[in-house]
Amino acid sequence: MLNPVNPDPPPWNRRTVLRQRWDELAYFHWAYPVEEVQALLPPGLRVDEFGGSAWVGLIPFHMRRVQLGPTPAVPYFGDFVEINVRTYVIDGSGRRAVWFFSLDVPRAVVVGVARSLFSLPYCFGPSSHKRQGSTHIYSTRRLWPRPDPGVRPQCRIEFTHGEPMGAADIGPLEHFLSARWGLVADRRGQLAYGAVDHARWPLYRIVNSAVSQTLIETTGLSSPRGEPHSMYSPGVDVRIGWFEPSARSQDFLRPTSRMEPK
């Protein structure tokens, strides 16, 4: 049974493996053909559609205060810029989740730990976030894994956030793109699900933006078309549950409902 989209988290009854804060986060999303995105997913996951499309996101933010289990926040290595490329999927239990194509950070140790423990496709390269008032500039340039010859995975995002979005501005699509209470990783052929918990996202308008990037194309997707759907959030405190086996969907090739979530 497919779980509904809910802007508020479900009750938390998990063992917490990670605590962290996601600060000054921006969402830039483009609609893609479902078949194009589905072709890049592992067997057992199917695209979570909205309006008959898959959605691919470019998400820059500042990770802070990373804690592993009950330990104190990790100094230096627990504070860094991240820019990830992701889409939205449904597992065999009907759980909506995030699927990461790549996560670029400037900490080689973080890359090693995340890849070995969680099988998440972290990548290494210099990354930065500069802010002046309400204007932000995020950038990254991937050094590892080494790209194919002639390909330079990089990204520069400049945007200005405006006023908070009111209830009339936040509809089903905004909740669909932001209210995700889990992630899925492929751990040596076994899908694993990690529950995510935080307060409802405080969402703000983005009034000006300029995105120059090749991270999305590096995943094997075509270049995004048109202006992205964009939002900003000052951030939330987050906890992530210990990964558990995720049931494989037996109908991952079958289209999901074209109806928007309530």
Mind sketching the topology for me?
Layout: E1 16-32, H1 34-38, E2 46-47, E3 54-68, E4 80-90, E5 96-105, H2 108-118, E6 122-124, E7 127-132, E8 135-141, E9 154-164, H3 172-178, E10 182-187, E11 190-197, E12 204-213, H4 215-218, E13 229-241, E14 244-245
Parallel strand pairs: 5-6, 5-10
Antiparallel strand pairs: 1-3, 1-13, 2-4, 3-4, 4-5, 7-8, 8-9, 9-12, 10-11, 11-13, 11-14
* Proper CATH architecture: Beta Barrel
Beta strand %: over 45%
Tally the helices: what do you get?
4
* First and last CA, distance: 15 Å
Helix content: 10-25%
Task: Give the strand order of the largest sheet, numbering strands 1, 2, ... along the chain.
Answer: 1-3-4-5-10-11-13
Kindly identify the CATH topology: Acetoacetate decarboxylase-like
For the sheet with most strands, the description reads: 7 strands, mixed, barrel
| Shape category | globular
Low-confidence stretches: 250-262
> Structural class of the helices, strands and pairings?
mainly beta
What is the CA-based Rg, rounded?
A: 17 Å
What is the name of the CATH class? Mainly Beta
